[in-house]
Structures are given as structure tokens and as C-alpha cells.
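A student in our group prepared the protein record below, which I am reviewing. Thanks in advance; the entry in question is below.
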Amino acid sequence: MYTVASVLNPKIGEYARKVHSKLSPVFAEKGVKDKGLLLSPNDVIEGEGYSILLVATGGTEVTTLKLYEMGDKPLVLVATGLANSLAAALESIAALKSKGAMVELLYYDDWSQVNVDEVFSKALEVKSFYEIRGTRIGIIGEPSPWLVASSVDHDKARKMLGVEFVKIPLEEVIEEYKATSLTKRDWRKIEELIEKSVSIEIPVKSLGEAYRLYLAIKEVIKRYNLDSITIQCFDLIRELDTTACLALSLLNSEFFIAGCEGDEQSVLSMLILSKLSGRPAWMANPVKINFSRNEIMLAHCTAPITAGVGYRFKTHFETGIGVGLDVVYEKGSTVTLARVNGDVEKILVAIGEIVESGMEDPIHCRTQVWIRLHGNVKCLLNNMFGNHLAMVLGDVSGLIKRYAELNGLKIVRV
């Protein structure tokens, strides 16, 4: 936290010091570091990641911009109706946004009315927006051939959202898998997964092979310094006789965003949902509709095991081999569904409630969830950008709306 002021006479200097000394201890109770009182641009030495700025007076615009240019990203500018604080904050925010900054303004009549909890909460929100910028999504292999509408304009994703897509040959994972052996420690991890499961309906050997693939993918992730991946998983089945479902489930459980089938739109949507919510996301097929109940059923084999109230180890649905995850989501949970379109101009958003999960219908992928939408299910179908939807627990529609506004995305709300 900084306090910024422009001191043209001693009284203003005294006023600025009182503002800083009054509020810095209150923010410190929230764990916010006091970075000091800046009385001129010359006081800015170097940036320190992210900050909250208390705009004490007018004439502080250059100081605020210099902070940003030195690497200190202002998350929230706090302004009041005193000493031209609001005027300076408005000018600063306009300049910051023109430079690509994501920043919010909070206004109070005077400093005694500042709601520290509100400021801190807003700062965390904006920080989550920044965490999406600079991320690297690895496309391991190629998109599955049936995904004819699920690619992303990589240039737009980089320019608008700050997200970079990185192409990686599938052969790197295959070679890494062949070079990977399971240690005693790895087998203990596998045993822990079995102990925590509701049931295991596959050979332990299959679980070991899938865990080897998880370790191999993690090595490739490290090699390319990735923050997220989508992988050409069906070709891996043909090459290695195992599936990537367990690997993707475990990665997402570790808050590393991982999608399957090489679906670029879905993994980008998962990235946004996971970063904004702080929870693991899941991508799934819409498989059934009940119009009379306004419900949609989703299913896939890769759900994060930490997202549910229990999980079963089964085979992969389409091939009947390897490992597929049947994760049971808690009935009554609110969920957010989303999908970004290919030209990175729109994001589809729907909110619903889980009415059933863990049905074990043998004709669908293993994790199965019925969701009753708050919006209209026909509207969802008419506005889909492709096959998969990304899902996360909780209602994060408000955060998505603000993120979309700051990044030039149009909300398609169902």
C-alpha cells in the first residue's frame, strides 16, 4: 500500500502524512505491506509487484504512472472528495487503462469512511485478473479431428488477454513416458489415491501406467515453463495403451489447468474460471437435455478428484481401457459454466445448481452431473460456441463480468 500526494504547501504535507499514518496500520492488519508515502515522482525507486494506492491529493498522476512503469501494478486506487483526490484518480486510471493496466477505483467521501475490507477484496479480485495475463498454455499435439470449431485465435488471445499458446510435439510426452519409471514413493502415492477412493474397478497396474503418464506430462510442463495445457489424448491411447484422464484430474486438483482433446477454447475457459474462482475447473461434454426441468447433463472422464465428495476409478468410457475418473459432485452445489469463443470476443456464461451426480450411467463418460440452470437451457443450446463447457463450483459470474469488461469481451449470459 502506497499513499500518493503532491505537496505544494506544508499544510497539505501534514494532511497527507495524517492520511497515511491513519490507514497504513489498518491495512497492515490485513497483511498489506506499507510501502510508504510518495510525495513526488522522484520518490518512486522500483516496483514491487502489486499495490493499493491511496490518492491523498491532486497532482499525483505522474507518480502513479511511474509506479506502473517501474513494475508496481496498482490494483485499486482509493479516492475521496478531499484535496482533488478524485480528479487525480480519474486521470490516473484513464492513463493506466490506456497502457493495458487492469485497475479499479473506489470512492469514499472522506478517509474515515474507507472500507478496508472492501478495498482488500477488490484488490484480490483485480489480482486474479492479472494472474491470467502472462500465462502460457501448452498445446501438446494437435486438436482432436472432431473438434472443428474449438480452436482459438492465438494472436488475439495474446493481445487481448495476455495469454500465450505454445505448440509442443506429442512425441515429447511419449518419449518422456517411456523414460519414466515408478519409484516406491510413486507407488505410495498411488496407494493413497486408492485408499481415498470410493471404489476401484480397474487393475492396479492400469493405475500405475496412468500415473506414469502424469509424471511424464509434468516433466514436459516443467521443460516449457507452462501454466496450463491441453493435450491430444486419444492419440496417446493408441501409442501408450493408457489414458491421460488421471493425469489431467490430478493436475487440475493441484490448480494446474489441464484440458483434453487439444480443445483450445475449453482450456482457455478453464483457465479463466479457475483463476477467478480459486477452484479447480472441469471441462465436459453436454450429453443430455431435459427441457421440462430446464436441466443439462454434463459428462467427461477427467474431473478433478478434489472437486467432489468422492471418486471411483473406472476405465476410460470410449475405449474401455486405462483410467477414467467418476467424481461425484455434491448435490445442491452452485456452479458456473463458461466458454470463450474462438475469436476471443465473447464469453458464454451460465449459472446453475447440481441436482444429481454419480449416476454411473454406462453409456456416458464417467463423471456425470445433472445441472438445473438458473437461465434458459434452450438459450444455452442456441448460444454454444462448440462442444465442451468449462465448469467450476460457485457463482463467479460477477467476476467474469468485470474481467470481461476490462478485457474487451462481450458477455453472452444465459
